[in-house]
Fold:
Amino acid sequence: MKGPLSVLITNPSHDKTTNYLDAWITSIISSIDPDKVEIYELRKEKATREELKKIINDKNPEVVLFNGHGSHDSITGYNYCVLVSSQINLDILKKRMVHSLSCDSGKT
Structure:
């Protein structure tokens, strides 16, 4: 039998917009059954490219949920640091379900 679904969530919570996203995702996380879903959250200053890479390599989450800002070719984390970009490290999302709640991301 397969274990719980593993989900990585970025939650930079560093400005008005990302604080709003933080309130919603915190509510969602609190309603999740930990026996069915294993959550790895990169919150505030932990929402960096290095931490993202570490969790993906160590925990291999099946689902990645990005909350933050974005551009046509990138998604950012804490203090607008680039987490993923079509130019840098998009390959780390291969074979994963990905949802990005960030403006303009996904155009490229």
Remarks:
- The beta strands are 5-11, 37-43, 63-67, 70-71, 74-76, 82-85, 97-101.
